[in-house]
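Researcher: Good morning. I'm working through a list of sequences from a screen, and I'd like to move beyond sequence-only analysis. For each chain I'm collecting a predicted structure so we can compare shapes side by side. This is the next one on the list. No need for commentary yet; just the structure.
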Amino acid sequence: MNIRSLAIFAGCAVVFFPAAFAQQPPVTSATEHLAVQEATAPIAPTDPNAPATPPKTNKINDALSKLSPAKAQLFDTVMRKNIDANRSKQQQLRGLYLDIRNNFISPTFNKEDFLVKSKQARDLQNELRASLDSDLAEIASQYTQEERQIIFNALPARYTRDMIEKNN
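Model: Good morning. Structure tokens for this chain:
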């Protein structure tokens, strides 16, 4: 499981930043959105002598490699179950983000629609976060303190930033 997958299933979805979408044309569907992304993606080098890109490593896989195989398998199993159980909510959330974005950058802005869809998105995010919290609690209850620390350090910052002690 990679960190991007963890972020997607976590429901800690990207916070809506209108400025990030301001330069993009309106998109009417998720399929069209993917087509636009593919069309504008940078072209990979075709030079056969170009150095190979090293495989990506991520914090979760690194953390899981420090655990026993049984504990790593437990984490993977529970998280995959969470992803499968929340797949439709994630798709619904992506659709809401698309609607919010299109409304925000359209020639006529609909304030009521924006507020309603934003609230729906936040409610879905809260549901997804609660689901993740429940599954992480299930995992943590079966880990030692050292194992919990390893996993905690590998979680995305958006999940742990409110739990980290601040020295300000």
